[in-house]
Amino acid sequence: MIATFVITRILLHRSPDSDFDVLGYNIHHLFTGLLMIVAGGLPLALFPQRSRALDLAAATFGGGLALALDEWVYLIVTDGTNASYILPVSLKGGIVMVSLAAVYVAMLYMIGTRRR
Predict the structure, then answer these.
(1) Which of 14, 15, 30, 75 has its CA 20 to 30 A from that of 47?
(2) How crowded is residue 16: how many other Cβ atoms within 10 Å of its Cβ?
(3) pLDDT for 52-74, tens place per residue?
(4) Helical spans, DSSP H, in the chain
């Protein structure tokens, strides 16, 4: 999750006008992230056993969550332009949201290991 956030931010700061357009619609990485959350989260919810496929599902889920959380504050507090994406409020918002998710994951992991 953190790696996806860092890589996305580096790439978009190097080239802030890199848009993903489909049929004339600008697809923010929030929406790509939501698709990844669904693709990774459903197998995790439905299949409790451990496997490489579920490890990949977990990585997909985490990457999608990072993409979605990164844009959450950006889309709320800015006008949604490419120039706004590189504003400090957007970066700080992304850092806060992804950090909160990472802390939550760590807390859940610690609770899970105590129960074993």
Answers:
(1) 30
(2) 14
(3) 999 999 999 999 999 999 999 99
(4) 2-14, 29-46, 52-77, 82-85, 88-115
